[in-house]
Each structure stands twice: as structure tokens, then as C-alpha cells.
Design goal:
Keywords: ATP-binding, Kinase, Magnesium, Metal-binding, Nucleotide-binding, Serine/threonine-protein kinase, Transferase. Belongs to the protein kinase superfamily. RIO-type Ser/Thr kinase family. GO terms for molecular function: ATP binding; metal ion binding; protein serine/threonine kinase activity. It catalyses: L-threonyl-[protein] + ATP = O-phospho-L-threonyl-[protein] + ADP + H(+); L-seryl-[protein] + ATP = O-phospho-L-seryl-[protein] + ADP + H(+). With about 290 residues, the protein is an alpha+beta fold. It has two domains: about 10-170, Phosphorylase Kinase, domain 1; about 190-280, Transferase(Phosphotransferase), domain 1 (Orthogonal Bundle). The chain has helices at about 10-20, 25-35, 40-50, 95-100, 110-115, 120-140, 155-160, 190-205, 245-255, 265-280, and strands at about 55-65, 70-75, 80-85, 165-170, 220-225, 225-230. It has a four-stranded antiparallel β-sheet. Strands 5-6 form a two-stranded antiparallel ribbon. The radius of gyration is 19 Å and the shape is globular. The two termini are about 35 Å apart. The structure holds adenosine-5'-diphosphate (ADP) and magnesium ion.
Length: about 290
């Protein structure tokens, strides 16, 4: 997420409120907790997923990011990518405000807890964030888009049991997981093909009413000449007043991130092409049995 969004007004007033309400002692306690916890959280989660029959074993750690760690795991449905989010206390959720704007929280106490960033509030924000990733993944998968197959669900009751983890089919193989487009070596023809599919993917999402919110070659996998879109917690809809800006930013990031593959398009021309294609036909939906 780019830094300029952390300066948004909502975030600033949030910060002021927090400074007023949070005692330094409380902050320190949470920091200490965080420092001790990441390994425990992952271990505990892996145990819960194994006990629940969601996975049979964890094979390797693939990548450790700012928010989550990605593992390769075995399941009864095949090899999976297991994404386990870090302890909610480790992040402020301040940068997420832009994505959440326009969302309505009906429960007043919950809304207040989230607003004040109490421990309970942070827990709720994290739960929502990971639930959103699951829900978006399922929606896109069922609509026939090029995304990894979600491996728990489709009912929210089922995947809620795995929070704060997300389990989806591994793209690539256990020995050779699919690279991201940002690190793939492409011939000029492959680059053009990947660009075309990436623009189409963004158009397919827009047709469903979504802006990805972090759309660039860092969140696009490349496997057998196919582009697969990943990383969905921050998807937004038109309900969000920042929708147009986020869409424009995605078009910009996509075009900039493709420059190293020799594709010279501007954010503007990319956005126009995405909007044009969004009016055209989409992929065939996938039939998912409950
Ligand atoms: N289904 C998948 N198959 C193979 N690799 C994946 C898959 N999903 C994610 N990855 C890998 O894990 C990394 C982290 O996943 P991502 O969802 O982008 O989380 P974040 O960027 O928040 O850490 C990706 O950059 C990619 O390399
Ligand atoms: Mg990512």
C-alpha cells in the first residue's frame, strides 16, 4: 500500500482520536505481546487447521510478508497455499481506512471498538479483513475469473473456522510454486500476452463491481502462460467513495509495473481499455456445489 494513502483525512482524525484515548502503558503492553507472538500464532493456527482436518501437513514456508506469511501445505484436496495473517495487534489498520470507507457497521458497540482500536476492536477489524479475503476469493472464483481455487467453503460458516488463515489451491507445484509476474522472465510475446490477460483480469473484476486496490505484477502469478490474480482483502466496491481513485491507482500501478517487461502504456490508456473491456463479455461462471 502506498504511503500517500496513509495521509487521508479519515486516517488523520482517527490518529488524533487514538492519541487522546490510548494510554502509553497500553501501547507498550501490546508491543511486547506482539514481539513474542508471531511464531505462536502461526503454530497455534497450524495445529487448529490440522486438528480440524483442513490441512494434513505444512511442507514449507514460501514467503513472509508484512501482514501474513505464506506456506505450502498438503490438504485432502491437493497442495495448498496457506496464508496466515499475523497477530492483529501488530498492525494499526490505519492504512486500511481508505478501503473500508463507505462500509456500514450496524452494531454500534462494534463500530466504536473498531474506531477506538481497542484490542477487541482490532480483533474485529482483523476478522473482517480476513473474512473479506475469503468472500472475495469465492465470488471471483464462482464468477469464473483467473484466481486460485478457494479450498474451504463456499459457506462463510465453513471458512470462518479458519480465520486468521486463508487456504487456496497452490498455483505451480510444491517444488516450483508459480512466480509473480514481477519476478518472471518473459519473452516479448509472453509479455504482451501477460499484459493482455492482466488488463482483462482487471476488467473482469470491474464488471463485477470491484477495484482490486493493490493491482500490480506483485499480485499477479504467472504459470503455464496464464496470469492468476491473488491477494484480495482490500477489494472495494462503488459503495466506497474512493472507488474511482483506487481504480485509477490500480491502472497506474499495473502499467508502471509492466514497464520492466517492455510494455509502455500509461495509467490513463490502461484505465480506458479496462473500462471498455468491462462492458464486453465476461468469463463463464464456475458451478460450485455447496
Ligand atoms: N495460490 C497461490 N499459489 C502460489 N503462490 C501463491 C498463491 N497465493 C499467494 N502466493 C505467494 O504468496 C505471496 C503472498 O501472498 P499474497 O496474497 O500476495 O499476500 P501478501 O502480499 O499480503 O503477503 C505471493 O506474493 C505469492 O508469491
Ligand atoms: Mg501480495
Amino acid at each position: 500500500m502506498s504511503a500517500r494513502w496513509s495521509e487521508d483525512q479519515w486516517g488523520e482524525s482517527e490518529q488524533r482520536l487514538r492519541r487522546k484515548h490510548t494510554k502509553p502503558a497500553g501501547r507498550r503492553r501490546i508491543t511486547d505481546l506482539t514481539a513474542e507472538q508471531p511464531e505462536d500464532i502461526a503454530d497455534d493456527m497450524i495445529r487448529r487447521l490440522t486438528d480440524g482436518g483442513f490441512i494434513t501437513e505444512v511442507l514449507a514456508e514460501l514467503k513472509s510478508g508484512k501482514e501474513a506469511t505464506a506456506y505450502i501445505a498438503n490438504t485432502y484436496k491437493g497442495t495448498a497455499l496457506l496464508k496466515i495473517y499475523r497477530d492483529f495487534a501488530a498492525r494499526s489498520f490505519k492504512n486500511d481506512a481508505i478501503y473500508r470507507e463507505g462500509q456500514v457497521v450496524l452494531d454500534e458497540r462494534a463500530a466504536r471498538a473498531m474506531h477506538n482500536r481497542s484490542r477487541k476492536g482490532l480483533e474485529m477489524l482483523q476478522f473482517d479483513w480476513v473474512m473479506a479475503e475469503w468472500a472475495h476469493l469465492w465470488h471471483l472464483w464462482q464468477a469464473g475469473l483467473s484466481v486460485p481455487e478457494p479450498l474451504v467453503g463456499p459457506h462463510p460458516f465453513d471458512y470462518a473456522a479458519t480465520i486468521p488463515a486463508v487456504l487456496m489451491r497452490l498455483i505451480g507445484t510444491e517444488d516450483e510454486p508459480a512466480p509473480r509476474l514481477s519476478e518472471a522472465k518473459l519473452t516479448p510475446e509472453q509479455a504482451q500476452n501477460a499484459w493482455n490477460q492482466s488488463v482483462q483480469g482487471m476488467a473482469d473484476m470491474l464488471r463485477l463491481g470491484y477495484a482490486h486496490g493493490d493491482y500490480s505484477t506483485y499480485n499477479l502469478l504467472w504459470w503455464e502462460n496464464t496470469v492468476i490474480i491473488i491477494d484480495f482483502p482490500q477489494l472495494t466496491t462503488r459503495q466506497n467513495p474512493n472507488f474511482r481513485d483506487l481504480l485509477r491507482r490500480d491502472a497506474e500501478s499495473l502499467s508502471i509495473s509492466f514497464r520492466k517487461h517492455g510494455i509502455q502504456e500509461t495509467g490513463e490508456s490502461t484505465l480506458r481499455e479496462v473500462q471498455r473491456r468491462a462492458l464486453g463479455p465476461g468469463p463463464a461462471p464456475r458451478l460450485v456445489l455447496p
